Amino acid sequence: MIRLPDASGVLREYAPRTEPAVPAAGGPPLVSRTVFSAAHVVADPFADVTPDGPAAVDWDATLAFRRHLWSHGLGVAEAMDTAQRGMGLDWPSAAELIRRSAAEAAACGGRIACGVGTDQLTGPAASLDEVRAAYEEQLAVVEEAGAQAIVMASRATAALARGPEEYVELYGHLLRQASEPVILHWLGPMFDPALTGYWGSRDLDAATETFLAVIAEHPDKVDGVKISLLDARREVELRRRLPDGVRCYTGDDFNYPELIAGEESGAGGRFSHALLGIFDPLAPLAAEAVRVLDTGDPAGFRKLLDPTVGLSRHLFEAPTRYYKTGVVFLAWLAGHQEHFAMVGGLQSARSLPHLARAYELADSLGLFPDPALAESRMRHLLAVYGVAA
Q1: What integer is the mean pLDDT of 199-206?
Q2: What are the strands, taking DSSP E only, across 157-272?
Q3: Which of 25, 185, 265, 282 could, after both became Cys, cross-link 71 (CB 3.0–4.6 A)?
Q4: Which residues contact 388 (CB under 8 A, 6 or more apart)?
Q5: Does the CA dihedral 217-161-240-173 come out positive or negative?
Q6: DSSP letters for 239-288
């Protein structure tokens, strides 16, 4: 038994699992859905850094985790918000991450797509021309590395664009510059408050029309769209309106099983592919579930993946942008890294009761390859907070 603090701070006993339930790596390729895991970075815990200083990354552990994701058949969505872009990971470190991960993907045959943003603009941008140049610089880095580009939402664009027309013009220019089809990422303000009013309006219906207008003008340059609004109904309605050949990658960490499973009838039986931060800790189970879906068994897929939603909703609870802390915490408990430290000191962003509940939910799912190791590490963390064994 282990004593865990609940949301009210009261210690209660929990009996950890003794056997894991996660499937082994390997298996046939995923065929019915394209699935990316947005991957976290592993900090260097011995670097003498400050929270607002340059990021210090443990490159060996970071790349090892990407090999873990590829071993289960998932693609890696690199240098995204899960990797703490704009929350501890600066552009020089992100560029190095893109180059190293793309080279690793090429070496082991893994699929990779990388975030293109404007976060090298560390102060207010003077104009949208400056924003466009920043996007172009990052797009060049990603394409030179041999990776697919994910065009991320930009805080600088949100601050400067005066209306929908300027979004259409900016994105149209970037899409014409891209050498291969890209993924467009719509990140909602629950993930980053600075992106409120993206696509030129706080009205999501109006913003959706602008987003679709960008895609309609350049369907040959858009592989797909990643929707991170945590609104299943809106995602379903949007994906029904996408041009043929343009995929919808769900970024909804609250409703992903139903969105990936899709509609049984109507609108051509549309469904969502996946580009999800929650698939960082759920990689083995997510891959197994999609392989079941590949056999034409949506009920079996839901049986495997539905029980994981409670953990995901917990990790992504408000303030949602701090979900990265729980993701890295679970990676430590699972043995993917030797410490619970994050770039920018973000390990402090969630409370002990929050982390304890994350441990309990993940353990109940059998996510830890070595439950005894996870329990031991949880006990060490509790001791730091003054909880006696």
Answers
A1: 96
A2: 182-187, 222-228, 247-250
A3: 25
A4: none
A5: positive
A6: HHTSPTT-EEEE--TTTHHHHHH--SSSTTT---EEEESTTTTTHHHHHH
Instruction: Enumerate residues 6+ apart whose C-beta is below 8 A from 58.
Output: 42, 43, 44, 45, 337
User: How far is residue 198's CA from residue 123's CA, in Å, rounded to a whole number?
Assistant: 19
Length of the chain measured in residues: 389
Q: What number of other Cβ atoms are within 10 A of residue 345's Cβ?
A: 14
Residue 268 has pLDDT above 80, yes or no: no
Q: How far apart are CA 326 and CA 308, in angstroms?
A: 14
CA distance 77 to 175: 19
Cα(219)–Cα(241) distance, rounded to whole angstroms?
12
Dihedral of CA atoms 367, 300, 308, 316 in degrees, nearest 10, equals 130
Q: What is the pTM of this model?
A: 0.95
> Of 52-56, 145-149, 197-201, 326-330, which gets the smallest average pLDDT?
52-56
pLDDT value of residue 94: 98
Please state, in angstroms and rounded to a whole number, the distance separating the CA atoms of residues 119 and 131: 10
